[in-house]
Design goal:
Blueprint (H helix, E strand, L loop, with lengths): L12 E6 L6 E6 L2 E7 L2 H6 L2 E6 L3 E5 L4 E4 L7 E5 L7 E3 L6 E5 L10 E7 L4 H4 L8
């Protein structure tokens, strides 16, 4: 959509989202103007995940926690959560912010999003890049 150079962090709104089949739904508190991170690591590249990383207290599962399947790999820190029925990963607990949640922008209802900008994140070179995201959660 559009690029926003100014994000008012004090103005949080509730965005709704969920998986493809609707078994899992959630709300995330974030600005109307979003900054997304496009990671080039193996799993994010293969799934097309566009990250909105927030503190855990700004994320709420509304329905379907029992429908989630967990997948961990490599260091085992990141908790990748998928809907058992449709296989969509609409959010997960990221390695960069284990006290936060990364929401997949592609799983949000866009009616509450005013604008967004996508920033590249070099997840292929994790150790050198991880510090760029730690302030988000």
């Amino acid at each position: 959509m559009s690029d926003s150079s100014h994000t008012d962090e004090a103005t949080m709104i509730r965005h709704s989202g969920g998986c493809h089949c609707g078994d899992v739904s959630f709300e995330v508190e974030a600005p109307a103007d979003l900054e997304l991170h496009d990671c080039n690591c193996s799993i994010c590249s293969m799934t097309g995940f566009l990250h909105i990383i927030v503190p855990k207290n700004r994320f709420h599962v509304l329905r379907g926690e029992g429908h989630l399947q967990e997948y961990r790999f490599n260091t085992g820190v990141a908790r990748h959560l998928f809907c058992k029925r449709c296989g969509v990963k609409s959010f997960y607990v990221p390695r960069s912010n284990p006290d936060g949640v990364s929401v997949n922008f592609r799983c949000l209802d866009r009616s509450t999003v005013r604008s967004w900008v996508v920033r590249a994140f070099d997840g292929q070179n994790w150790e050198a890049s991880a510090g760029e995201l730690t302030h988000l959660a």
